[in-house]
Write a structure and sequence with these properties.
Helices cover about 40% and strands about 20% of the residues. It is α+β, with helices and mostly antiparallel strands and about 550 residues long.
Length: about 550
């Protein structure tokens, strides 16, 4: 019988880092621990004067690895089969695009005394939208020059992404920009730190961040040309030469764990570390993604991940179509919504405020029939990521009366995110991508049965739930098992180490009523989100009242 081995997945989320130790034979979890970031508010450095700003201190990434791994090892030690010298590989996933300015040695500028308190020298978190104007400039320039750079990322560049953030930094914080020798995505920074190869010119960059967020693609020779970048800002071409010309998939080795990092975290030195990738993409891996499956990672925001073959056409409005970003040899497709769990949290905090706000709102919202409240919302409180790709869109709630309750609003917001999810699904399917099943994972997926049932009804197809609550960390551990030599490739590791829960959420009789509400949502979506749309909205409120009357009857 082969020796039992384990792999370690480290998942860097928006507010915390999780370490997960799993059995490589079947994905059995033997140890898990979470460490909350110390800087800012819930780990995010904010600015009361600018609601678009969201940064993180890179030191939290380093401290979090050691603390979370030590705690996970302590828990795993209770398993009779586990020994830490049986850990064969380490995988890392992070949020993104979360680029970090670094010096010539790869040290984050925020970890240097002169810049320690400067938010512009910190990690520019995925949800930072300060670069919305620069994103528009990049889109406009690519269209005017007839460049191909946006064809693989939906046709519109986002304020959440790599180049827009760097360009914004150059304009608002020139001292930081000039001090930065290079910029490194968080997904690449952590493996580089673990393996000791922090030289920005030598560390291995993952194709996930490069392809989805930095307009990197083999069709045009890698990153955007110097001529294109020069027209954006004369300072950018010099930076391009200090970035990268080659990328790697997450089944490849970034290096070996150094003795120093091993001592800090109680791990054995020399363990292979996989090239990093984004949390959503490895969350899809941990949920068993394959052809015909859409994985929805439902947390503060939602990311939709699929894979397809190389014959797929470019899909307008998605966040990227990148070879090898999810499974090597297949096209990784990313879409998503900028606020889902965050939207529910806003409602719970602002309209309820109680200690058990979510549980009570879910309970009361579940008592309502679809359409009963007469409310309809747009889910754009943090902008629209897909398919409109517009951070300047905002939320909307119509149909309110003097009798509207927090639970009714809470349900309307859940329904709005489901309608947004259906918009994404219909766009992707219209370009020939077959979606035979939907698998969900993440915090929302395990906390709200009501949400999953509403999604099943709105999308009119079954919703399955990933077996583990820690799908992103499991996906990272799967990559660790591959670089550790246990599994031949990621699909083989997925087959051995993932699964789904037995409960399946099937569409109910409410699906037909939600079709009517979705048509009204679509009218609002197009009227407020698509320039030049001629839409008569005068009948929307009256139709909502009619639907409410039918539901109450």
């Amino acid at each position: 019988m082969p020796q039992t081995t384990f792999s370690l997945g480290v998942d860097y989320g928006t507010n915390s880092v999780r370490a997960l130790i799993v059995d490589t034979r079947d994905g059995r979890e033997v140890g898990s621990a979470v460490w909350n970031y110390r800087h800012g508010e819930d780990g995010i450095v904010l600015d009361a004067k600018d609601p678009h700003l969201a940064r993180q201190h890179p030191q939290d990434y380093f401290d979090g690895f050691s603390a979370a791994v030590k705690a996970a090892l302590e828990i795993a030690s209770a398993d009779r089969e586990f020994q830490k010298d049986k850990i064969v590989g380490i995988g890392v996933d992070t949020t993104g695009s979360t680029p970090v300015p670094v010096d010539a040695r790869g040290t984050p500028l925020a970890c240097i005394a002169d810049f320690g308190d400067d938010p512009n020298a910190m990690a520019w978190l995925w949800k930072d939208h300060t670069a919305w104007a620069e994103a528009g400039e990049i889109t406009e320039l690519a269209e005017r020059r007839d460049e191909p750079y946006l064809k693989k990322c939906g046709g519109t560049y986002s304020s959440e992404w790599f180049w827009s953030k760097i360009l914004h930094c150059a304009r608002v914080a020139p001292a930081v920009f000039e001090k930065a020798f290079s910029w490194v995505e968080c997904q690449d920074l952590v493996p580089a730190w673990l393996t000791g190869e922090t030289d920005p010119l030598k560390l291995k960059r993952g194709v996930c961040a490069a392809g989805h967020k930095a307009m990197f693609h083999a069709d045009w020779g890698g990153l955007p040309s110097e001529a294109f970048l020069r027209e954006l800002d004369p300072r950018l071409p010099g930076l391009r030469s200090r970035l990268y010309q080659r990328t790697h998939t997450a089944d490849q080795e970034a290096g070996k764990l150094t003795a120093e990092r091993a001592a800090d975290s109680n791990l054995p030195a020399g363990v292979p570390v996989a090239v990093g990738a984004f949390d959503a993409h490895l969350g899809a891996v941990g949920s068993g993604v394959c052809l015909g499956t859409m994985v929805k990672i439902m947390g503060t925001s939602t990311c939709d991940i699929l894979v397809g073959d190389e014959s797929l056409p470019d899909i307008p409005g998605v966040c990227g179509m990148v070879p090898g970003s999810v499974i090597p040899g297949q096209i990784g497709i990313e879409a998503g919504q900028s606020a889902v769990g965050d939207l529910f949290n806003w409602c719970a905090k602002q309209l309820h405020g109680g200690e058990n706000a979510h549980a009570e709102l879910n309970r009361d919202a579940a008592k309502l029939r679809p359409g009963e409240s007469g409310l309809l919302a747009l889910d754009w409180n943090n902008g629209n990521r897909t398919i409109l790709v517009d951070p300047l869109l905002t939320g909307l709630l119509i149909g309110q009366t003097l009798h509207s309750t927090p639970a009714e609003i809470y349900r309307a917001l859940i329904e709005a995110t489901a309608f947004g999810a259906r918009k994404i699904l219909e766009r992707i399917e219209s370009y020939g991508v077959a979606v035979e099943r939907i698998v969900v994972c993440g915090g929302v997926a395990v906390k709200s049965e009501l949400t999953l049932q509403i999604y099943a009804d709105v999308c009119n197809r079954p919703i399955q739930v990933s077996r583990t609550e820690h799908t992103c960390a499991l996906g990272a551990a799967i990559c660790g098992s591959v670089v550790g030599g246990v599994h031949a490739d990621i699909p083989a590791a997925i087959a051995a180490m993932t699964g789904i829960k037995p409960t399946v959420y099937l569409p109910s009789a409410s699906a037909g009523l939600y079709d009517r509400l979705f048509k009204l949502y679509s009218r609002l979506h197009d009227a407020f989100g698509i320039r030049g749309t001629e839409s008569d909205l005068s009948g929307v409120m009256k139709e909502l009242l009619s639907i409410s009357k039918e539901a109450r009857a």
